[in-house]
Write a structure and sequence with these properties.
Layout lengths: L14 H19 L19 E2 L2 E2 H8 L1
Antiparallel strand pairs: 1-2
């Protein structure tokens, strides 16, 4: 399952924010599915801005033009 992206680009969120997201996602899945095994993983994709985008433009391209 892929969750909505609170994390947009690489290293724009702190380690503390990522840890809080992982904890909340695990708790949310546990609330929906019942007891989860401890080894039920949550993976945060920390994607480089030049590696994805929308409308034919990368996030990096948009960032460069917004400055």
């Amino acid at each position: 399952m892929k969750l909505p992206r609170p994390f947009q680009t690489q290293e724009t969120n702190t380690k503390r924010e990522k840890a809080a997201f992982i904890q909340a996602a695990f708790a949310g899945f546990a609330a929906l599915l019942g007891d989860l095994h401890e080894e039920s993983y949550i993976y945060v994709q920390d994607v480089r801005a030049a590696s994805y985008g929308y409308g034919g433009r990368t996030k990096e391209w948009r960032y460069q033009r917004a400055s």
